[in-house]
Design brief:
- This protein is α/β, with parallel strands linked by helices.
- It folds into 2 domains: about 5-175 and about 340-410, Peroxisomal Thiolase, Chain A, domain 1; about 175-340, Peroxisomal Thiolase, Chain A, domain 1 (3-Layer(aba) Sandwich).
- The chain has 15 helices and 16 strands.
- It has helices at about 20-25, 30-40, 55-65, 90-100, 115-130, 200-225, 230-235, 245-255, 265-275, 280-285, 290-305, 335-340, 345-350, 355-370, 385-390; strands at about 5-15, 15-20, 45, 75-80, 105-110, 135-145, 160-165, 175-185, 190, 200, 235-240, 310-320, 320-330, 350, 395-400, 405-410.
- A 9-stranded mixed β-sheet has the order 5-4-6-7-1-8-13-12-11, with helices on both faces.
- A hairpin with a 2-residue loop joins strand 15 and strand 16 (about 405-410).
- Helix 6 (about 200-225) packs across helix 8.
């Protein structure tokens, strides 16, 4: 079995629009400082009507695949809970858009926010088995929220796509592939029973998340034979972030497993071990299945060069439910590899929308769902297409005719 396996290249795509969380809070009659402090979200992604999970995934992946021979990619797996079709996997749409060759396996994975790590684990195991025959795997996680105007859920929404090239030449993180802890249950915490609905019970979701992180971490320690608190075992921790503020609850839960800690002690540890991984999550809002990739990019992009190979603990959670705790080691060139993707610059180029514009965009996109024929409005919001897309080779949804979706590069 091969052991030196990890992420060679990683990119994030946070869309072309963002909404300021403080401005949304004021529009809803809430204290903006408290909203930001509780959820740790400064801005959240808003997806224009001519983008979807296909375009987001392809736009995240294009800079990754441009730097390698496309024939070297032997597997494409896309994790999502926001697919545009219940039968045809969006991996096929993305494969076609990226111009990948026909001799590769491609499929879509689903398990709520665990879908991205499910895809990653499959890719890692494929390479570890040797069946890859030297080829690489492209793993994409792409999701964004449904419409929840004037609800308490509105403040923990957003979206992002991540694309990771997994190979035997890791440059960002090398996974400890035999160290993993898992916890599963059958529960309805959050779920999407239709293309329009996103349901959930916040209390059930919170407690299930906490049960999952405790169960997965204790199982990890048992399976790895390692003892000690996460502070002792890991330089950094990347938790699943349905919203970044949830990472504090997760960290406190793990630290208290070996004896209750005072809140100020937990906060100090959180600032040192977790906050670096929230760098990008605070700008996109909910990260769904891409959480661990977003956290990894944040860590690599925040800490720069490390003294030795910093160890990272990852926790992934998917409603329904599953929790997994696994680990990896940050590669020496991780900061440079992340910097080459210019993630910060792309996020800086996004256009801010007002609360009114955001509501119009959400209602417009909602009107397209399950509509057999439509052509997305490229003028919403005004000037966006020419600023962010025109001539910059970003994928958009051109039209839908009798449910057939056509995409094109700008």
């Amino acid at each position: 079995m091969k052991h030196h396996i990890g992420i060679e290249s990683l990119n994030l795509y946070g869309g072309s629009l963002y909404l300021d969380q403080e401005k949304l809070a004021r529009a809803r009659g809430l204290d903006p400082e408290k909203v930001v402090r509780d959820f740790l979200i400064d801005t959240r992604t808003v997806i224009p009507p001519f983008e979807d999970t296909v375009t987001m995934g392809a736009n995240a992946a294009l800079p990754v695949v441009k730097s390698v021979d496309r024939e070297s990619i032997g597997m494409l797996i896309v994790g999502t809970e926001s697919s545009v079709d219940f039968g045809k996997p969006i991996s096929t749409n993305i494969m076609g858009a990226l111009g990948l060759g026909p001799h590769l396996r491609n499929y879509e994975t689903k398990h709520a926010c665990y879908s991205g790590v499910a895809a990653l684990d499959t890719a890692v195991n494929w390479i570890a088995s040797g069946l890859n025959r030297g080829r690489k795997a492209l793993v994409i996680s792409t999701d964004f929220s449904r419409m929840h105007l004037n609800t308490k859920e509105e403040f923990v929404l957003g979206g992002v796509a991540a694309a990771a090239l997994v190979s035997e030449q890791p440059r960002i993180v090398e996974y400890e592939i035999e160290k993993r802890g898992t916890w599963s249950s059958d529960v309805y915490d959050t779920f999407r029973p239709s293309a329009r609905e996103e349901m959930g019970n916040n209390e059930v979701s919170l407690f299930t998340y906490m049960d999952a992180i405790e169960g997965a971490y204790l199982h990890y320690r048992r399976m790895s034979g390692e003892e000690g608190s996460p502070e002792e075992l890991f330089s950094y921790l990347a938790y699943h972030t349905p919203f970044p503020g949830m990472a504090f609850q997760a960290h406190r839960t793990l630290l208290n497993l070996d004896g209750r800690r005072p809140k100020d002690e937990v906060m100090k540890s959180f600032d040192a071990k977790v906050v670096p991984g929230l760098k990008y999550a605070r700008r996109v809002g909910s990260t769904y299945g891409a959480s661990n990739f977003v956290g990894l990019a944040g860590i690599a992009g925040s800490v720069g060069k490390t003294n030795g190979r910093a160890r990272i603990g990852f926790f992934s959670y998917g409603s329904g439910a599953i929790g997994e705790f696994y680990s990896g080691v940050l590669c020496d060139g991780a900061a440079e590899a992340i910097a080459s993707m210019a993630i910060d610059r792309t996020l800086d180029e996004r256009t801010e929308v007002s609360v009114d514009e955001y509501e119009t965009i959400e209602r417009t996109r909602e009107s397209y769902i399950e509509n057999p024929d439509f052509e997305p409005d490229l003028s919403l919001p005004a000037g966006l297409y020419s600023r962010f897309y025109g001539g910059k080779r970003r994928l958009i949804l051109k039209n839908v005719k009798n449910f057939y979706r056509t995409y094109e590069w700008s």
